Amino acid sequence: MESILRLVQRQGFRRGVRGGSSLWLIAGASAWMLLRERRGRSRVVYRTVLQPGEQLTVATRPPRRRNGPPAL
């Protein structure tokens, strides 16, 4: 999926700016925005290799409010 978005982005900017096609420019800008949004979402924060028998537990908490106790 990402390779298709990159192709549309390149072609869109090339044909939109150089060729003067506003539709291609819009397609390129849309693909660029989608790629940026996807990149921000898929950030790796921790990576490890588990051996047989090991386990990793992930827990989440609600964000803390600025003034007062954590939100429920």
Q: What brief labels describe this structure?
A:
2 helices; mainly alpha
Would you give an account of this structure?
It is a single chain. This protein has a domain of 40 residues. The chain has 2 helices and no strands. Helix 1 runs antiparallel to helix 2. The model has no long low-confidence stretch (mean pLDDT 85).
Task: Report the structural category.
Answer: mainly alpha
Radius of gyration equals: 21 Å
Poorly predicted ranges (pLDDT <50, ≥5 residues)? none
pLDDT average, as an integer?
85
In short:
This protein has 72 residues and is mainly α. The chain contains 2 helices and no strands.
Strand and helix layout:
Elements: H1 2-18, H2 22-41
Helix pairs in contact: 1-2
